[in-house]
Write a structure and sequence with these properties.
six-stranded antiparallel β-sheet, 3 domains, six-stranded mixed β-sheet, 7 helices, alpha+beta, SH3 type barrels, 387 residues
Length: 387
C-alpha cells in the first residue's frame, strides 16, 4: 500500500471508461473520463462509490467498475457494463441447445466479457453464462437506455379473426420472450395482398386453430371433418405460400405446421383416430371436450428442432384430431410421437421452414420452458441471419 495524505491505498485498475467525479454521486461534477485499464489508487468505498487517487487528484468512481490489480502487474479480465434490451434466456453455453439458467428481464445490467458467433459471454448475478449478443447493449454510467426498436425482429402472425384467442395471445408472449416484436397481419385473399403484408415483417408464425379444408390437399370432405374457417384458410394459404417463395423464416404451430406441409403438396388425416391404421402404441392427441393431452415425442438429431430444444425425448402438449398423412416437397421429419405420428418437420431447401404439431407457445414458462422457448429463439436467430 502507498500512503498518500494519511490515507492507506491499494492499486486498482479501471475495467471500463469511467467518469472521475468530485463526490460520490452522479450529481457531482466529472473531472474527466478515466480510460479503461488505467491504474488508480483505491482509498475506500461507501454506497457503491470508491474514493480513489488518479493522477495525483482525489475523487470518486463508481466502485463496480474498478478492480484490484493482479500482483503480476497483468490487468485482470475486464468486463464492460451492458444492459439487456429484451427479456432473454441466460444459458450455460453459446447456443440454444444449452440449458437456460433463467430469464434475464429487459433492462437488467450485466457484465459483458466477450462475444463470438452471435453470443455474448456475460456475468449476471455473479454467474457467468451466455446471452444472444443482439439483445445486450453498452450501458453508460448512471443510464438505462431503451432498446432501439429497429433492432428487434418483426414476426408476423397471420390473420385468425380472433386476436384474443389464447392460441394467439400465447404465441405473442412467446415471440416477445424470445426477443421478437409481433406484427398482426391483415386478412388477405390473393398473392399480391400477401406480399404486401409480408413486406412488414422478417419472419412468420402461422398459429393453431380450426381444421383445414380438404380441398387444399385434394381430398373429398369426409364426415370426420370438424369446423372449417374458409376465410382464414384462404388467407393462410396465400401468406404461407408467399412466405415460402420468399425464403422467409417460418415456424408453424399445430394447424400452422399442417398448412405449411399442405402448401408443399402434403396431405392430412381428417381425423387421426378414424382414418389412421392402429399402432401397437396408442396415444390420444386430444383430451375430452377439446382439452389438452400430454405425451412424449422423440426429436431427431441433426435437425433445426434438435438445435433449438435438444435431441431425444421431450414431454409436450397436444389438442388436435388432424395430423400429417403424407409429406410435402422437400419436407424432412424431425420428430415423432410413440405412435409414429409426425410431430416436427423442416424443409431441406429453406433456411428456416419448421413446423411442430404440438403447442410450445403454452410451454415457454414453467417446466421445460428453456427447450420450448428455444424454438422461438431459433426463429428469431434465423431471421437475424436472413437480414
Amino acid at each position: 500500500p502507498i500512503s498518500v495524505a494519511g490515507d492507506s491505498t491499494q492499486e486498482y485498475i479501471t475495467t471500463v471508461n469511467i467518469n472521475f467525479r468530485t463526490g460520490p454521486s452522479t450529481s457531482y461534477a466529472s473531472q474527466g473520463i478515466v480510460p479503461k485499464g488505467t491504474p488508480v489508487e483505491f482509498i475506500s468505498s461507501s454506497n457503491n462509490w470508491a474514493k480513489v487517487i488518479y493522477d495525483g487528484v482525489t475523487g470518486y468512481m463508481y466502485a463496480k467498475y474498478i478492480s484490484p490489480k493482479a500482483e503480476n502487474n497483468e490487468p485482470p479480465e475486464v468486463t464492460e457494463p451492458y444492459i439487456t434490451t429484451v427479456a432473454v434466456n441466460f444459458r450455460t453455453g453459446p447456443s440454444t441447445s444449452y440449458v437456460s439458467q433463467g430469464i434475464v428481464p429487459k433492462g437488467t445490467p450485466v457484465e459483458f466479457i466477450s462475444s463470438a458467433n452471435d453470443w455474448a459471454k456475460v456475468i449476471y448475478n455473479g454467474d457467468t453464462g451466455f446471452i444472444f449478443a443482439k439483445y445486450v447493449t453498452p450501458q453508460s454510467e448512471g443510464t438505462t437506455p431503451e432498446p432501439t426498436p429497429d433492432k428487434k425482429v418483426k414476426v408476423g402472425i397471420p390473420w385468425t379473426g380472433n386476436r384474443s384467442n389464447s392460441l394467439v395471445t400465447k404465441t405473442v408472449s412467446s415471440i416477445e420472450l424470445a426477443g421478437g416484436e409481433v406484427v398482426h397481419l391483415s386478412k388477405v385473399s390473393n398473392a399480391i395482398e400477401a406480399a404486401a403484408q409480408l413486406a412488414r415483417v422478417d419472419a412468420v408464425v402461422p398459429t393453431g386453430g380450426s381444421d383445414i379444408g380438404a380441398k387444399y390437399y385434394n381430398q373429398p370432405t369426409t364426415k370426420y371433418m370438424e369446423y372449417v374457417h374458409a376465410a382464414r384458410d384462404l388467407s393462410d394459404y396465400h401468406i404461407i405460400r408467399m412466405a415460402d417463395s420468399m425464403n422467409m423464416p417460418m415456424l408453424g404451430l399445430c394447424r400452422g405446421a399442417q398448412f405449411m406441409n399442405v402448401v408443399r403438396g402434403g396431405a392430412l388425416y381428417q381425423d387421426i383416430d378414424k382414418q389412421r391404421t392402429r399402432r401397437n402404441t396408442y396415444i390420444s392427441h386430444r383430451g375430452p371436450n377439446y382439452s389438452w393431452n400430454y405425451h412424449n415425442i422423440t426429436v431427431y438429431d441433426n435437425s433445426k428442432l434438435s438445435s433449438a430444444m435438444g435431441k431425444g425425448t421431450h414431454y409436450v402438449n397436444s389438442m388436435h384430431h388432424q395430423g400429417i398423412r403424407t409429406l410435402g416437397s422437400n419436407i424432412k421429419v424431425t420428430a415423432r410421437s410413440a405412435d409414429s405420428l409426425i410431430e416436427g418437420f423442416e424443409a431441406t431447401d429453406r433456411a428456416f421452414y419448421v413446423g411442430v404439431q404440438f403447442h410450445p407457445e403454452f410451454l415457454t414458462t414453467g417446466n421445460n420452458a428453456s427447450a420450448n422457448l428455444g424454438i422461438f429463439e431459433s426463429l428469431i436467430q434465423a431471421a437475424n441471419k436472413n437480414e
